[in-house]
Write a structure and sequence with these properties.
There is one protein chain. The chain is an alpha/beta fold. The chain is built from 20 helices and 29 strands. A 6-stranded mixed β-sheet has the order 14-13-12-15-17-16, with helices on both faces. The radius of gyration is 29 Å and the shape is globular.
Amino acid sequence: MTDHLVLFMPSGKRGNFATGTPILEAARQLGVYVESVCGGRGICGRCQVETQFGHFAKHGITSEQSSISELGAKEIRYAEKRDLKEDRRLSCSALILGDLVVDIPQDTVINAQVVRKDADQRVIERNSAVRMCYIEVEEPDMHSPSGDMDRLIDGLEKDWQISNPRIDSHLVSEVQSVLRAGKWSVTVAVHQETEQSQAEIIAIYPELKNEAYGIACDIGSTTIALHLTSLLSGSNIASAGTSNPQIRFGEDLMSRVSYVMMNPDGREAMTKAVRKSINELIDQVCEDSGIDRHDILDSVFVGNPVMHHLFLGIDPTELGGAPFALAVSGAVHLKAKEIDIELNEGARTYILPCIAGHVGADAAAATLCEGPHRQDEMMLLIDVGTNAEIVLGNSSHAVAASSPTGPAFEGAETSCGQRAAPGAIERIRIDPETLEPRYRIIGVEQWSNEDGFEENAKEIGITGICGSGIIEVIAEMYLAGIISEDGVLNGKLAEKSDRIFEDGRTFSYLVKEGEPRIIVTQNDVRAIQLAKAALYAGVKLLMDKQKVTSVDKIGLAGAFGSFIDPKYAMILGLVPDCIVENVKAVGNAAGTGARMALLNRDYRREIEKTVRDIEKIETALEPSFQEHFVNAMAFPNKVDPFPKLEKTVILPPREMNSVQRKQSDQTQQSRRRGGRNRRPR
């Protein structure tokens, strides 16, 4: 099969690709950022590119119109439903047929995701697995024939009570030169996982070395957040974040598993991509803080099971179907260099245990951070993503499950959805009388009805609705009566407001006119209903297992959970009824849990025990899941009461469900019959 040269601009990246290769796949292979929220199904339209034709002498390539396929069915359908500019193509559909120059439009690049990476600044008690031990070693003489290493080990035992440590092989050849450079005074970095385990000498420095560092990293399916922390003071030195480069292989977890199944080199490519990205983040935090990466002696990583396996170089295929078997579920201890993480040559890596096949080390870290197992109150902890991870428990017992929410909360499967990026609507309010909206976008402080908004918004544009905005707009539409309890848009309101308009066989709500035109369709509402119903049904299963009808506290973890207004999450029926003040965003709890495990080895033992004690629930095997799911499709729920929420918010009157309606009809019929049979006095 003939290969064709493809050049991506403005990056200048190029490569040869076989006839029929989708442009999106070529971009992924070259590491060119092209957003594809829907996973290449031609629904989201985020993967638009422009093709350039002519002879490009500078690059030695001639690009012709015949070098790209005709408009495909996906593109035609998208153009009919939405808007596809004449000079644009959907890269997931357009195929390479010859040498081609592809331009990535700048309006798709500037809307790259905002990565929220700041560390929780809580004070963490320190008991690091790495200790810095300063010793003065006896100099050799003719009467003491023991070797330099032996005398160094003797000094460790004498001054630090560290007996019979192992020594990393790379240090054997360095000991003499370091001792002499330090004039027989050295600082020895000792790694010891527990008081009972054998100590290991992992680094030696001349003279006094009074600082050492570690990294804590949360590998999310969408973003990676990394924190550089002092092992001695516990302070966070620098943080950095980036989009997970595996996105180019698949938007969600299952699409990445599918990529591995269909491509022999898929696992290796994704493993290399994520490790390379982590090394680049290490470069960034070291540069920002002026720290030598070789002074980083310990590292902790967390991630969901698929990310966990791919980072370790494990084929995640078994996680793609029942029984969702993990290759390794317990904590993992490695040398950082064994997984190509470039730190000090002796640096160690600790990876927290996974809870279950789809409840990973990130959920374990969030559990460690928030500590439901340390309190008497019943706490619900949710990390909302394409696959929500849920932990419910207290000091007596804890249960955990995952629930397949899908990518709707992250902007996929909704007509104007997008990731959290400058220009995305993140807050919205709808006047219940006029049905007029006002909103805030990421990057602008003012609301849309305030002075200065228009001027500031022009610089970045208003581009779509991100996850927190989607939650609020659907909830506000429900409160305003635009949608019913069952999620049906009320077409009768079209007579009251132009915001409600006929859209095919259903109706839609207009948020913003212009380019782009931002609307909420009936299909958008359905997508959110399906996602929130899956999450709530998973929560209800855990509540059933715990034999409770309410929870005392709710923690919303992760980037998405951090920016959800708890009140709106409850109005939507995303979480069960709870005192609103007790529903809190807990930020990047997984990253904080990773820092806790980095700074205190006792926390490692704590979470290892806790994970063993957590009862794992497989939602797919629970017969009541479907019933809970159906009830959770309603706002906030068809059968569950929300009395605590109603103390804060006036909810629309509840509609009768079919059972209640039948019972009411039977009661009325009985009354009528009783009236006819009653004798007059």
